[in-house]
Amino acid sequence: MILQSPSRLGLSNNPGSSLLRVLVAVAIVIAASVLAAVGALRPIENGLQDLGFAMRSTEASGQVAVVEMDAASLAAIRQWPWDRTHYARVVDRLDRAGARTIAFDVDFSARSNPADDARFARSLEKASANIVLPVFGQQASAADQRQLDALPIPLLREHVLLGSVSVQPDPTGIVRDMPIGTFNSDAPRPSLSAQLAQRSGVADQPFPIDFAIDPGSLPRHSFIAVERGEFDAGAFAGKDVVIGATAIEMGDRYAVPRHGILPGLIVQALAAETLLDGIPNRVGWPVLLLPAFGLVWLILGARHRRQIVLRTGGAVVVTLTVLHFGAILANQIFAVAPSVLVILASAIVRWAALVHADFEQTRMIDPETGMPNRRAFEKEIVNGSHTRVIAAMIDGFETIRMVVEDSEIGSLFGRIEDRLCAAGCGERIYRVDDRVVAWTTALEPFEIEGQLQGLAAVMRHPLEITGRRIDARLAFGIADGREISDAAHAASQALRSGSCFAYHEHAEKLVLDQQLSLMGELDEGIRRGELEVLYQPKLDLRSDRITSAEALIRWNHPTRGYLRPDIFIPLAEEADRIDDLTLFVLRRAIEDLDTWCSAGHVMKVAVNVSAVLISSPAFAVRLEHILREEGVPRERVTLEITESAAIIDFEAARSALEAIRALGVSISMDDYGTGQSTLTYLKGLPLSELKIDRSFVQYAHRDQGDALLVSSTVELAHQMGLEVVAEGIEDADCLAFLRSIGCDFAQGYHIAKPMSAEDLLELVRISPPLSSRKAA
């Protein structure tokens, strides 16, 4: 029995495993560093920061008050834009109430009524509070990358401060940061939030907004209420007030972490609240990655799963605690995603190593018998020097299983193993399949044959299993090289033929003989009427009637039963017999076509043609002869060429098809979409029809990708003057989809299964349009 207990990924404490442990830790840290450096961990970092906001949810300080241009204000004033006298009255009210700063997030870059502008300017001039009016930049147009800066009109900005209200969402469309200032009109401008909080910094230097602050805790007042003086006298004393739109109708809304969608005014207020405690400092991910390396070392040294869970959980808690308290106590925003990643990655690696160690002892053992299994045998073959494999297959194992209890199967194989080992088969016998054991040998073939004959004689004696005598005859397979499956296949062939043993080469010869025999019977099968032609109808989606059919060959072999075409057609191609078979189908199809037409039903018929026949001059001559002989209207005959089949000489194939097309026969490309030269075939071959393979059609009504492929193929074919047949229609929804995209024909089990020529004639004769049949 081969049992392995290697030390993988530091499972033991020897120096080699310690070195491997260091290398794994370093590799994990390097991988995380690379991912962090290229920005791949940004979504994880954002998620952890959002978790941090939720963990330390706080109330606003109350220093920043919000005056909202809300729905109530819009309803009261009833016009837009508002007269600037409204803003003047609000400034007067707030100034008299003792506001420290009054900041507007409202665009004043355009002139309005001169009297209103003058009234607003007088209020700004006489106000004791600091007044901040907004500036912002925006792109000129989609095609013009220039930044156009908007400033308040000169009359209004003479006695005020300016504050940038530009907001730049991240690539995912979420606002996480706000700039300390921006460059507008070639000058640095503090941001509105910086003006409110009275903080200075570097233009275009972003700072993270603290979304742990609850927006609902901000002091909020309606614009119209402030204009009318309907507020407590001390509500604004010493406060920094920001005025702007919050009504949904006025837009200016942004996606933010934790809170979803917020008005831009509230985002500005939260940014100002953030700056009241100072500008938050971002601490880069390398700072925490070094101590994380120590945590990784501890996790990789865990000796059992419980230790992994405890150490990993503790490491993650420590990392998130640094994130949490760093933000609360020191206004430091730590990047922790790489550290968390290396902690979790090391836990996964260590867990996998322990799982591997647990399974290493059992994965090589067959649980039912305790014998070494196929994996162990494959390892033995790779590492061993033996040149041959022998497999022994138990005859009638299914019957034995019905007699022997499951718990006794181990005893059965144990007895077999004892006899094989006693006969000198080797040190180890492996159970490589349900009823197959195997071993390796260095014996020469003539020595093996004698040994196996002796084993067969030994195995003729019944085995004693818990008081029962069980017959377990063995058949042996011999394979050169290292392929277990070859030896098992040879044993199976020996068992079927009643032989004691078989070589793998001999098994292949048996298969070859069978194939040659089958081809030898083909002509006789045609003569005896064993080969029959069935027809699968095609529904014309314009008339909703069956107007054509595809001819399909079937072989009802007297001893082998019904043989699928994919069994004997490839053999016919290899044996150079496919032309006779194809012409047989063609002649039969033309005869049946003539019968249908004589009965008053104008039909078309399609016959499959192998790619190997396309450029065959002899086939073309015989085809023309049949067409002339039968006298059927040639426009009712279609030859279907499989697009997935390889056309080796494309130019020769094109010439041959053009000659066939000149006879009046239509050419269809079958199984369209499964080959590798689709566009070349469409462009270069004289086609009249395209058949889309069922693999694309079957679920096109449910799968958006398949729907796009099918609809675009139909459109392309129509533009090229081709009709389109869709294969594989199995339900009404798929058929409805094909109708909706203008497909010409449909074929599949939902329309009808393959049937005889007589049944098809009856179907066409008595059937109303398909839509009527489904309705009935």
From TrEMBL:
Family annotation (InterPro entries): CHASE2 (IPR007890), Cyclic-di-GMP_PDE-like (IPR050706), EAL_dom (IPR001633), EAL_sf (IPR035919)
Pfam families in the cross-refs: CHASE2, EAL
Transmembrane annotation, as ranges: 20-41, 283-301, 308-327, 333-354
Key word Transmembrane present: yes
Protein name: EAL domain-containing protein
Domain EAL: from-to ranges: 515-768
Keywords per UniProt: Membrane, Transmembrane, Transmembrane helix
